[in-house]
Amino acid sequence: MAKRHEPGSFLKATLEGQPAELKRLVADDSAARAADRLRGCKRILLAGTGTSYHGALAGQFILRSAGLDAWAVRAFELANYPPALRPDDGLILLSHRGSKRFSRDALDGFARTSQHWVAITGEGSPMDGDGVVRTVEQEKSPVHTASHTAAMLRIAQMAVALANPAWKGRLAELPEAVQRAVDMGDGIAAKVGPTEFRPVTHFVGGGPARATSYEGALKLREASHLVSAEGHDVEGILHGPLVSIQPGTPVVLVAQAGPSLERLKELELALREIGATVLSFPAASGVDEVLAPIVNVVPLQWLAYHVSRKLGVDADSFRRNEPKYAAAQSRFTL
Known about the structure:
This protein is an alpha/beta fold. The protein has helices at residues 9-16, 18-26, 30-34, 51-65, 75-80, 101-111, 146-162, 174-182, 185-192, 208-223, 234-238, 261-274, 292-310, 323-329, and strands spanning 43-48, 70-74, 89-95, 117-121, 132-134, 200-205, 228-233, 250-253, 277-280.
């Protein structure tokens, strides 16, 4: 008899295993070696879809902090609406499985005229070649966690290889910082208990934390699909979306030290005037702001898991066990 699947167990196990995976990758120099393909590039594009695009968003800040000109773009847009590419452009493509249609199209299109590319992808991915950098084993849960934090770490390793960021000596401390975030699981479960996350939950962050807010919203949607969620940048939510937030609506603030923190505090005051339910979790301590998304996303992964358990949803299902959603997903190829 097949062993019964515990709902969300794949997500939970992978989430908890992230510190060990990052510790393994910190000791591996393949990203530094691959970075040589980008040496001398005057502009670096970072591309991905979904969670991988959020990794690209965080990655642009990591590379910029090392003095590099870096811009995140969605893989679909790079494949179909590309900017005017220059001979000295470089590309970092992020793809968990290496099989997504437009991620491959974006890479193939760029690689037809340039070898200045690196692809960050998981073990077992069909991508291969000198520019391929591996992260972690393919995740059993469709709600990706470890491959995301690992991809951002890989970008940080390339930034160190290409330049001299002020934070380079702290990179080895990231696995421990992620372990502290993993250890927050029970505390986050306690906050989930009394909170009503339906019909919609908002996530807000500024600067590099914008990527974290987008990823938090996506994880909550994927894992707890009875909940709708939106991610916002801290300035953008003040210019319209704030007026749609009702009393009691949960808003998760990613409050990392940096230039956006004061604006986030102003937003919090406004939210409390409305009567919104404001949630936040301890931000990464002793971690540079541009590396903080590697740590601060972990509490939001826990949030998605615990909300799924509260609602009786299997976070590992992706609704493929529901005929209408299975049929809907058969109508397109990712």
